[in-house]
Write a sequence for this structure.
């Protein structure tokens, strides 16, 4: 594991546990005129703790509804052209930039002048800082497109469980890029995770006629490759964004605008390169309907919620939220969409994946008081 000279606490957990220690110290220490009020500290702790759980709850809802709506929108048979996934990705970025701009406006006491000044200072006057966001942005754009490929070829539940491998990639990138140390149980839980995902992908013998099997095997492979690439990209981009967010003090919404601007640029170029012909023929918004707008909206909300979760909770808790949403979407996929028939092997795999996530989180908590090397 990489070691570096400077021992420094950089994780959100570490920061929040440090904050708690500071609060306890302040509450027990005799008050001095220079001390800020303990009640203010407690209030701010309660506020961030509430934000943490609210953001995690919203992430569970958002992940579940996005997966199901996206899957539904990609399999829906309608007259006319189907909407372009590349266009939906660009639309979601535009929506995200608008929402983040509104949030920065509100953070600056609804002063347009203050907002403009801040954005100019942070985005235009610091080109190197802004350029740093081009890396996660390019990767997220690729990832957001890959997820459409995955959900066009895999059922919602298989996709969700396989996508849990991003916990493994996130862990590996956290170790190599942030110098985070993992305990034995955490490594063990990652093995459980891989075993679980393998079981979920295990071919079943109860498939339909042979033509269907050949078609579905081909598309399963495409879907699987797409989701595996998305796992690598999610791990890298998440850890990279976390590093930027925790190394600097700037508002998460300003960082999101920087990220969104590049994502819009990359997404737009991607759309022209990949779907240019179709865009020229039938326009950017061809095939858009209410479901498409819902997918775009949910994807934009997802970007905002992920940023809040990284700020107020951490990547491990983000994994918990994803695990919970697996259970919810498997149930909905089985009962409502009827496009999924869980076998015993799938069930065992899903249980392993979810247990692995909890085992990882269980080991992580006591370790949070230790330091993280950066
Ligand atoms: O699955 P994962 O957690 O990697 O998904 C992250 C999603 O959140 C991506 O769609 C990415 O574009 C979005 N995101 C964002 N703003 C951030 C971080 C992630 O829009 N600051």
């Amino acid at each position: 594991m990489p070691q570096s000279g400077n021992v420094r606490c950089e994780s959100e957990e570490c920061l929040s546990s440090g904050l708690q220690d500071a609060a306890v110290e302040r509450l027990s220490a005799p008050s001095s005129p220079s001390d800020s009020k303990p009640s203010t500290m407690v209030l701010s702790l309660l506020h961030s703790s509430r934000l943490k759980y609210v953001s995690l709850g919203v992430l569970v809802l958002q992940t579940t509804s996005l997966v199901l709506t996206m899957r539904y929108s990609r399999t829906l048979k309608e007259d006319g052209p189907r909407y372009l996934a590349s266009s939906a990705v660009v639309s979601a970025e535009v929506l995200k930039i608008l929402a983040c701009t509104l949030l920065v406006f509100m953070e600056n006491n609804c002063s347009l002048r203050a907002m403009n000044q801040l954005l100019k200072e942070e985005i235009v006057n610091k080109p190197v800082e802004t350029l740093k966001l081009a890396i996660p942005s390019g990767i997220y754009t690729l990832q957001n497109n890959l997820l459409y490929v995955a959900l066009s070829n895999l059922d919602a539940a298989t996709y969700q469980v396989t996508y849990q491998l991003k916990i493994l990639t996130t862990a590996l990138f956290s170790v190599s890029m942030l110098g985070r140390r993992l305990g034995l149980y955490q490594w063990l839980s990652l093995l459980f995770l891989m075993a679980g995902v393998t079981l979920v992908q295990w071919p079943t013998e109860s498939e339909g006629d042979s033509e269907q099997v050949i078609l579905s095997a081909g598309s399963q492979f495409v879907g699987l490759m797409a989701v595996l690439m998305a796992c690598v990209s999610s791990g890298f981009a998440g850890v990279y964004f976390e590093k930027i967010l925790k190394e600097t003090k700037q508002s998460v919404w300003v960082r999101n605008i920087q990220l969104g601007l590049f994502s819009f640029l990359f997404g737009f170029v991607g759309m022209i390169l990949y779907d240019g012909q179709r865009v020229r023929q039938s326009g950017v918004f061809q095939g858009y309907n209410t479901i498409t707008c819902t997918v775009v909206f949910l994807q934009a909300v997802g970007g905002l919620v992920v940023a809040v979760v990284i700020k107020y909770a951490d990547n491990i808790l983000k994994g918990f939220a994803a695990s919970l949403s697996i259970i919810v979407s498997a149930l909905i996929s089985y009962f409502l969409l009827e496009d999924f028939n869980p076998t015993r092997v799938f069930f065992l795999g899903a249980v392993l994946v979810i247990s692995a996530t909890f085992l990882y989180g269980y080991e992580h908590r006591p370790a949070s008081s230790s330091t993280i090397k950066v």
Q: What stands out?
A: Confidence is low (pLDDT under 50) at residues 1-36, 207-215, 366-374. Residues 98 and 257 are 9 Å apart (CA to CA). The first helix runs from residue 12 to 28. The pocket of cytidine-5'-monophosphate is lined by residues 96, 140, 144, 234, 238, 241, 256, 259, 302-303, 306-307 (CB under 6 Å).
